[in-house]
Amino acid sequence: MAASNIIYVLTIILYSLSVFGYFIDFLQNNRKANRLAFWFLSIVWVLQTIFLVLRAFQFERLPLLTPFEGLFFYAWAMVTLSLLVNFYFRVDFLVFFMNVVGFSLMSVSLFFPTDNLSPVWEDILTSELLILHVTLIILSYAGFTVAFACSILYLIEHQMLKNKNWGKRLLRFGSLNQLDRFSYAVTMCAYPLLLLGVILGFIWAHSGEGLQTVPLFDPKVLGSLAVLVFYGGYLYQKAVKGKQGYGMAFYNMLGFLVLLANYLLTSEWSSFHIWSV
């Protein structure tokens, strides 16, 4: 337990240093700060992974079921995707924006208790079906977060080009076409994960292992359906109507705000999703 707490605090500190390094690079085009931030981020990923493994052994289950664990796993997924983007796509500022979100998630997790589930909830929630549901949902959210970061970069770069702000910094954003295609590709991968996760959640809730019933007009249900509809509309506009550009980047950004509201707020009024409170 003490080791986990030390690792958690050290992770927060190193993550903050990494984000600060990327921020300095963003402001000053400082390659040394970028490299240092990357190595801090790599250490953060190792520490996060160790923390998750220790917690799994401590509670003898996958650490995904409490609000604290959900946010921590979400942040871990963001760091993982950031490292992959850094290796394979080399869009420097995308890594920065992704980790602003990832660090925010880690920071929010500080406000949630780190205790295990109560024995009653542990009996209900320790289910392979539910764990798969949670895993798919969080991974889809991580994918949508990457798409959101691409959209933010697109909007910023579009404004810079409009104002004729040329320079080295502009080159490190990636091209508008690259950001648009990457945002679309990530959203296209994340959407089926979200859809499968929601379906598995309904199946679990109505199974013998679950709560037996899910009210259709529950805020969590409505919020999840709203996210599916919103991103479904985005994919329809892109795939069928062939739309792209500034408007679609703005649409994708709004979709993430809907997702964030569903993740952080709707559980407060949910009558069945109460373990997320």
Automatic annotation (TrEMBL):
Membrane topology listed for this record: Multi-pass membrane protein
Domain Cytochrome c assembly protein as annotated: residue spans: 69-270
Ranges that cross the membrane: 6-24, 36-59, 71-89, 94-112, 132-156, 182-205, 217-236, 248-265
Single biological process term from Gene Ontology: cytochrome complex assembly
One GO CC annotation: plasma membrane
UniProt keyword terms in alphabetical order: Membrane, Transmembrane, Transmembrane helix
The protein's name: Cytochrome c biogenesis protein CcsA
Source species taxonomy: Bacteria, Bacillati, Bacillota, Bacilli, Bacillales
